[in-house]
Amino acid sequence: MTDFAVELRQVNKTFVSGRGAAAESVAAIRDMNLGIPPGTFFTLLGPSGCGKTTTLRLIAGFEFPTTGEVLIQGRPMSKVPPNRRPVNTVFQNYALFPHLDVAHNVAFGLEIKRVPRPERDRMVQEALEMVRLPHAGNRKPSQLSGGQQQRIALARALVNRPAVLLLDEPLGALDLKLRKAMQLELKQIQKQVGITFIYVTHDQEEALTMSDEIAVMNNGVIQQMGGPVTLYTKPANRFVADFIGESNFVQGTVVAVSDGQATVAMGAERATVEHGDVDLTPGQTITFIIRPEKLLLFAPDQAPAGAISGTVREVVYIGTDTRYLLALASGESIVARVQNGCQSEMAFHSPGDEVRIFWQPEDARALAG
Amino acid sequence: MKPSRLPSLGFVYYLGIALLLYLPILLLVIFSFNNSTVLVFPLKGFTLKWYGQLSQNGELLQAVRNSLLIGLGSSAVATLLGAMGALAVVRYKLPGQGLFTAVSALPLVIPYVILGVSLLLLYREIGIPLSAPAAGLGHVIISTPYALLIIASRLVGFPDNLEEAAMDLGTSYWGALLRITLPICSPALLAAFMLCFTISFDEYSISSFLVGTDNTLPVYLYSQLRFPARLPIVVALAAILMVLTILVMVISEWLRRVGQTPARKVEPL
Amino acid sequence: MKHRGRFAALIGPPSLYLLLFFLAPMAVMALYSLRAGTLGAARDVFTLDNYRLYLANDNFHRLLLRSAGMAFAIAVLASLLAYPLAYYLAFQAGTNKVLMLTLIIIPTWTSYLLRIFSWKLILGSNGVLNSLLLWAGLIREASPILLYSQAAVIVTLVYVWIPFVALPIFAALERIDRSLLEAAADLGCQPWEAFLRITLPLSLPGVVAGFFFALIPTLGEFVTPLLVGGTSGMMYGNLIQDQFMRALNWPMGSVMSLAMLAVVLVLIFVLTRFGSLSDLAGL
Prior knowledge:
- The complex is a heterotrimer of chains A (about 375), B (about 270) and C (about 280).
- Chain A is of the alpha+beta class.
- Chain A contains eight helices and 20 strands.
- Chain A has two domains: about 5-240, Rossmann fold (3-Layer(aba) Sandwich); about 245-365, CATH 2.40.50.140.
- Chain A has helices spanning about 50-60, 100-110, 115-130, 145-160, 175-195, 205-210, 230-235, 240-245; strands at about 5-15, 25-35, 40-45, 65-70, 75, 85-90, 165-170, 195-200, 215-220, 220-225, 250-255, 260-265, 270-275, 285-290, 295-300, 310-315, 320-330, 335-340, 355-360, 365.
- In chain A, the strands form four sheets. Chain A has a six-stranded mixed sheet with strand order 6-7-8-3-9-10, sandwiched between helices.
- In chain A, α2 packs parallel to α4 (about 145-160) and α3 (about 115-130) crosses α4 (about 145-160).
- Chain B has about 270 residues and is mostly helical.
- Chain B contains eleven helices and no strands.
- Chain B has helices at about 10-30, 50-55, 60-90, 95-105, 110-125, 130-155, 160-170, 175-200, 205-210, 215-225, 230-255.
- Chain C is mostly helical.
- Chain C has one domain: Orthogonal Bundle (MetI-like fold), CATH 1.10.3720.10.
- The radius of gyration of chain C is 24 Å and the shape is globular.
- The two termini of chain C are about 35 Å apart.
- Chains in contact: A-B, B-C.
């Protein structure tokens, strides 16, 4: 029944560093279960040290699991070295062979497989055209810019028609504009070629832009897996809520629980939040999250019912939005982002102003743990 | 800085030392063509007869042959061992590495008399006959550290995951070393080989203990120093050797520097 | 793990070679130091006599000390003379510095036997220099300038070592961030002050490396004393060579070598306190 492109079953990976009494073992990955459907653009997202690159290397075959199994297209890979897996990697530093020209770099995998010359040349040219560098064949890698090298590295991997393509933070060394252009290009290429891409990054915006599905990792454990919208709107825990996008974490005490929603007290004020799958009991102290852009600010006399009070502490204008740092009556601080220009009836607020803060209940979610 | 066009003190000093270093070589070459059995001024006329006599000296030719063979042999072994050691030290961080690095660097500083004498004892103890090849085995010990250093400094200039990239594309580890690492290191390998050859070819101290009745070129040369009559031939020989060594080292140094930092040209595509 | 296998395969052969041809010989030498004789029945008798003889013989110790003193003098002189050379190349030679350094290094790779021999020819009584001076009418009769003496050994070896010592000093000087000197000037330092306070201290690791690199092998030097040392220029290495090649008293020779090896190891240990052997790699 396994029709996953890549599967990890109960995988643990520990590294041992140091010797003898000073030896430390670090659990890079713990009890990981992962199934990646074919044809998806799948991203492993997390801060450095979370285990995402280790996961990638386990799939590529440069590391082997301490316990557990890695399967590619249903076949167990526990004895299979990297050169015999139907997988190719685009490395973070491109790893282009400096002594070979671009065409020979791209052709390398085909040469190993003894693909006949005419077909090889044709495939190489096709690959170069796909990454939009059709005339680069005779150049040496050192003569190309960073972005161009990255595309050649991509071509070199894709020309082998792997079942799965692994990309290890390939855009890290590029400047912002180029990076954004490449993100779209990679996505397009993936759709065009149709193979499974497994992408590793620490940039959550990048992950949201490109991925069909994202696994957020921390400390070797998958915190949550799902599509971009799900992860953004329904983060499962504090880490995911904090890592993806910006969140306000507000504390309160549960007053009443009803179907799907709960009333929470913050000091003297009351507000409504969604509790989703989290079980709440009255009297429980909880943390709920609300995204800054979901907060609506009103002058005290114009506020709708259910809004809570706050004072403006700081105002930061950033072109598209204005950010307000607000202090709640309970003493906590939250941030609101108001898009400039679309609420022309709403006055801009200044530091020291009293405001009323309102949100739709479905935009605030209680967090487990 | 001095705006004057007089050469700076430092340059004069440099020039002085350079002259002192090249002077003996120059003089030997000059006198190798001198038609006289004593090395004195004034010069007595141009001749090639000393060079001619070289080719008739059977003992000498035998010594040359020995030195060439053990030079080539010991350089090949030293370069290979140095390359393996360099790979192990640069690409891996595993226990044993530090000890290996330390021990393999020791022959650079241990006095050659100790190296020679201890090998002599080993050979006698386990029954290896004293001969030119026996000396060659000792040459490997003193030249391997140099080979290792040259190759290692070439390796650090390149990303450390090129072998991984090659394996990702279908080669085995050893295949990756052959197809990728070897070509990239080839200038360094060649430079190391040539340096090791030079070391072996000119080596006297250790060889003097280990050659037995064989001759290597330096050992033969030393034995001739006592005979004033043989002087001009020795001079001719010395001239050839020094010029050859310089040529080999020039090529070796050039190779070592080839492609160290390739210039970046970003052209529109 | 896979990686360990590859590492072992790579480090194995060189390690094995080192073990067989570098470490094992040392062990054999230690073995011989305990033997009563070189050949025949005496080979199988083990005794500490050689050690006792060695320790009792003042001449041996004095020679070792004298050789160490000479080696020390040679290393100091070579370092002093090499420093300005390296400094000139690093700071004043401009874009050609590497080429100029290489030009200095290349002749040092020719056989030092030949170079010393040729200096003998140049400076000896029948030699080039004397004949030149006579011919030019500058002197009346030949004089042996290069006397067979301790001084001759020292001068010769200093000459040989200068380029080798210059390499690590050059490397260390090159590594000094020039902006440090600019900062010093900005703060009021005169050039010589900046040199003493900034350049010199920062270049010390290279100086130390070069110093030990010249010092340690010179301890056991025996070829140069044979060529230019005469009787007064004899060094400890000659003693050892003599024991092995002429007197054929290998056990005693081994004891002598071990004594020197002990000194060498102590010096190497001191070197590692100050820096590392890789500082030598001006490569």
